Amino acid sequence: MAYIAPIHRPTSVRHALKSHLLSGDEESLVLAKTNRIEIYRLYNGNLSLVHSTAINGSISVVQKLRPINSPTDILFVGTERFEFFTLRWDPETSRLETLETFKDLGEHHMRDSQSHDKCIVDPSGRYMAVHLWEGVLSIFRLGTRKNVALTLDLMDQVRLSELFIKSSTFIHTETGHPKVAFLYQSRGDAHDSKLVTYRLTQDDRGSQPSRFDPQKDRDIDCDIPDAGAGILIPVRKVEEEVKRHNFRNVETAKAHLGGLIVVGETRLAYIDEVTKIQVESALAEASIFVAWAEYDEKHYFLADDYGNLNFLTILTQDEGVVVTGMEVNKIGETSRASSLVYLGNNLLFVASHYGDSQLFKVNFNSNPIIQEIQSMRNIGPILDFAVMDMGNRENDSQLGNEYSSGQARLVTGSGVFKDGSLRSVRSGVGLEDIGILADLNYTRALFSLKSYSAPKVDTLVVSFLTETRVFTFGSGGDVEEVESFHGMALDQQMLLVGNLPNEQIIQVTAAAAMLLDLESGVTIATWTPPSGKSITNASANDSWLFLSVEGTSLVSFSLQGGLNVVADKDIGGKDQVACIHVPPQLPGVAVVGFWTSGTVSILDLATLQPVHGESLRRTQSDASIPRDLALVQVLPSDVSGPTLFIAMEDGNVVTFNISKTYEFSARKSVVLGTREARFHLLPQEDGLYNIFATTEHPSLIYSSEGRIIYSAVTAEDATCVCPFDTDAFPEAIVVATDNQIKISQIDTERRAHVRALPMRETIRRIAYSPSEKVFGLGCIKRNLVDGEEIVQSSFKLVDEIIFDWVGKAIPLGTPSYTELVEAVIRAELPDSYGNPAERFIVGTSFTPDPDVAAPSDVRGRIVVIGIDGERNPYVILKHELKGACRCLAVMDGKIIAALTKTVVAVKYEETSSTTGRLTKLASYRPSTYPVDIALHGDIIAVADLTKSVSLVQFIPGVDGAESKLVEVARHYQSAWGTAVCHVQDESWLESDAEGNLIVLRRNPQGVTSEDKRRLEVTSEIGLGEMVNKIRAISVETSPGAMVIPKAFLGTVEGGIYMFGLIAPHAQDLLLRFQTNLSNAIKTAGEVQFKHYRAFRNAEREGDGPFRFLDGELLERFLDQDEETQELVCEGLGPSVEDMRNIVEELRRIH
Q1: Using CA atoms, how far apart are residues 1058 and 892, in angstroms rounded to an integer?
Q2: Which of 97, 530, 589, 1096 is most exposed by smallest CB count within 10 Å?
């Protein structure tokens, strides 16, 4: 059974619109990102997220409608599986509520439209036309009476004679009757453009839809000279001082504002809606326009396929109403737009699928120009990616563990053409280094102090094994190390240093506890342990000091008026103290963890008598020991009381809710690593605390949405941390590693941290070389030169550390043909001396230019590339092929290449440092066209373009016999494969072009030969996104782990997912849990979860995910109220608290 969960949610924006959704007084921006709707509002010139909600479906249509007499809009949303619904913003709950739901019942009997799903709304906001099927238009209307104003009625589904519609829009009319225009081509193979307009309704009441009869109902019917025309822009009418009439001499009529602009590739055409007069203007440069937005009735923004933003102006005369022509001027460069939205106040939003979405300020001076003021990161489409590490870079091992907690670093080839970039993606709480204080080894503890009368922290105390050093900071950030500091003992390790009220310092070493006066540096009081004993643990707040001596006795001190012993207690031989803690916010109590018994007790500091205690061991064989403690207010006080965190020796962190009477409840356990964590408290402005836990995978513990979050921190080597809110470094922290001390800024919550290297070309393929510390990139660059599109491929290197170019690029192709990069892999192959050497292997395809070169049998190449001492790539081998080389892999020194119609195994030999040869060993012919291959041992999985997956075994030749590639198993159902990967034993993961994931299993122990040859489906789910690449990972897990991570997936929409397999002991529980949860949770649109996640392609449709768990759904359990959680857990077996712990553990895996 399988599991899928998002590491990085999709960021591609395909739909955007401006709407009065939140209120009638302000306009908001609505974005659709795959299966999420996000609402933004403008605040101080920037877009801020107001609300985000998940939809059970991949969004294909978003439009706004305005009910009668309503100040606000409603949203119409459609999904790729033909679920449609309307949403309204509820200001009381601050959520989107579902008004109506629709299901298109005709989907099984109609043919999909040739273009994308199209939904248009008339200028009044009450009529809507939806074009989903070829030759069919669905017409809707909002209710006209108050009691049905929010009801959307389907008026009719009418037949259209215009089958191949390229663009459609409603026209602004003088009569108020809705009129629709279609730009279409006459046949699917015809290169032409035609324009027609129809009235949407037949009667004046607007209740009867038009029949759209091409002989009777067409108003405008004309040919468009530019066959590449693809956009219609409706032009609003303006008030004229002298009203024009429809009945006049057409020959002398002029084109007035109020009609259509047809945007072509070489020219623009304006058509008056009343007189049908056309005005044409040629473009200075040919282009392919993809999106538009209205600035006013005479000016429009136009975006083209090359990322250029243009400003279209309608030229007028006679009081600005008579159209004489049009001109287009370039005003800037943006990401390639999927949609443009003008937000007013000269602000333009560019929504992009190919690159980052951007917000621009348009400056209208003599020549309009744009200035970027905000960017929304988008790592889609992900064409390829490399897994850098799984939270462990020891010896460049790619082996991770289940406690990686999002530490995996992925480097993606993202974007297309000029928006192409290399992106380093890591999920977690980010640390941004401000500066390095010093290169100091083996720091044991860090403390921040205020000097005398200082309003903020200005001193850092660094404790080492045998000494302590002090650094003071000026208001400008200047640093000075001082030899002495207010009488502190600096010749030994410091256990505790802290400021107290009344300008005093408490200092604790192994030998003594001292109270110092800050102004004079005089020691006010000193306490030393009995002779021959030493202090082993110390903790304090403003009122109390608490010490452990030799782990066998406890001493409490009052700090009010001195250093006064209040109580002491001898533990004796019964137990031993492992750790102690004085809460900063709770008066008069301390927490003690005991070594032998494995218990934790809350003590009264005045008497050192236990108030409450709790055993941490669940079984007799459990030998867990508490090693660190923190009792602080992490959650807001109106949500929960203080929480006790206990770091166990085995890497677990156990938590309890602590009541006002100090009783323990709601035990939870979370795994942070394989060894004990150290807690470092980070106070926040709202009186809450965050906890920085240092272990082999550091984590930040904080609160979000009423629950405690454990999130990875992007500083794997941190050993000590302390807050450091100074004048020069506000809200900073100091982080010590094994060899450095750094000042850093820390995020307050978990984010996906993306570092970008703009490439301005498509990163088609990426491979990582651990030994050379470089990425090998297969790049494709597109330029427009004098109206001609020039495509050039190349191979380049990027350094892993500096994340920038290194060495020289190797261009691919010649003037007689275009060579496209299809595959890049890294491998260790024998050099000419037989020693293993690092090599990159590149597979390409040719696109010959018939005007330059004669037809040739050569259709691709395999290129082997080495790296010299100066880190420049150089070509060792160029081997020409009769087919394009689609993908590559290496099996025991043999190169496996998937060509256009065959899969071949070849032997590679280097004859010198710059020459080599390939020898064909065996071949296999797939069903149609191989799109991806994956290896496991001597088995090759071949993902076919249309025929799913086949498994091929390489059989080496023996005794002079030839080697063979023999098909041993096949998936007999059709699937348009996109990627394949081995996940475990005989199981393989396949993705297809319809956005499905399929787990296939071979059964070599089958009863019949047919059973052995058949790949059976063990799990399947509809992901809703097309997967471009799957990369296998190796992860160590504990014996009780429920999910074993096996692969990462990168999608076209910019999503990164973790795929795992469910352990047998957890399958039944988690499957029933998912079923209960999907029935209890309602999402916007009320689309059923099982319908959303069901497998679906052209041949069949499932009735839900089959043996597949959706991690995103399971994690929503934590967001539900207590009543819903109890309902979900009813009949499962484990308690609500147990299920919370399970979901938290699943969440931490990714």
Answers
A1: 28
A2: 530
How is residue 107 annotated by DSSP? G
| 395, pLDDT greater than 50 | no
Q: Cα separation of 774 and 782, whole Å?
A: 25
Q: Which three-class secondary structure state does DSSP give residue 1111? A: helix
- Give 318's Cβ-side CA count (13 Å radius): 14
- Tell me the C-alpha distance between 392 and 1036, whole Å: 12
In tens, the pLDDT along 742-777 reads: 998 887 666 777 888 999 999 999 999 988 889 999
pTM of the full predicted structure?
A: 0.80
Q: Which residues pair with 386 in a beta bridge?
A: 411
Tokens linked to 91: 């200001």
Other CB atoms within 10 A of residue 483 CB: 7
With a CB cutoff of 8 Å and minimum separation 6, the contacts of 31 are 13, 15, 16, 37, 38, 39, 40, 351, 357
SS (H, E, C) 408-464: EEEEEEECCHHHCEEEEEEEEECEEEEEEEECCCCCCEEEEECCCCCCCCCEEEEEC
Residue type, 835: N
Write out the DSSP string of 909-964. EEEETTEEEEEEEEEE--SS-EEEEEEETTEEEEEESSB-EEEEEEE---TTPPPE
Rounded to whole angstroms, what are the CA distances from 123 to 170, 419, 1071? 7, 34, 48
Residue 415: its pLDDT value, please? 94
Q: Left if phi > 0, otherwise alpha if psi is -120 to 50, otherwise beta: which for 453?
A: left
CB atoms within 10 A of CB 465: 9
Instruction: Read off the pLDDT of residues 616-674 as tens digits, 9 standing for 90 and up.
Output: 887 766 677 899 999 999 988 888 889 999 998 888 888 999 998 999 988 888 877 77
Report strand pairing: 544-549 vs 535-540: antiparallel
For residues 173 and 273, what is the distance between their CA atoms, to the nearest angstrom? 8
Closest C-alpha among 168, 69, 85, 176 to residue 123:
176
* Distance between CA atoms of residues 183 and 839, nearest Å: 52
Residue 287 is encoded by which pair of tokens? 């282009």
> Across residues 451-461, what is the average pLDDT?
88
CA atoms within 13 A on the CB side of 658: 27
Report the 3 state secondary structure along 66-88: CCCCCCCCEEEEEECCCEEEEEE
Which amino acid is it at 492? Q
Determine which of 14-28, 667-681, 822-836 has the lowest per-residue pLDDT on average. 667-681
675: number of Cβ within 10 Å:
13
φ, ψ for residue 1137 (rounded to 5)? -65, -40
Query: What's 123-175 look like in SS3?
Result: CCCCEEEEEEECCEEEEEEECCCHHHCCCEEEEEEEECCCCEEEEEEEECCCC
The one-character DSSP state at 536 is E
Phi-psi region of 737 (alpha: psi -120 to 50; beta: other; left: phi over 0): beta
Q: Which residues contact 873 (CB under 8 A, 6 or more apart)?
A: 776, 795, 796, 797, 807, 808, 809, 810, 840, 865, 866, 867
Rama region for 1146: left / alpha / beta (φ>0; ψ in -120 to 50; rest): alpha
Q: Measuring CA to CA, which residue among 584, 635, 565, 624 is closest to residue 600? A: 624
Length, in residues, of the chain = 1150
**Nearest-10 Cα torsion for 190, 193, 196, 197:** 130
CB 100 within 8 A of CB 85: yes
Instruction: Give alpha helix (H) positions in 723-800.
Output: none
Q: Is the peptide bond before 855 cis (omega within 30 degrees of 0)?
A: no
- Alpha carbons 844 and 897: distance in angstroms, whole number: 11
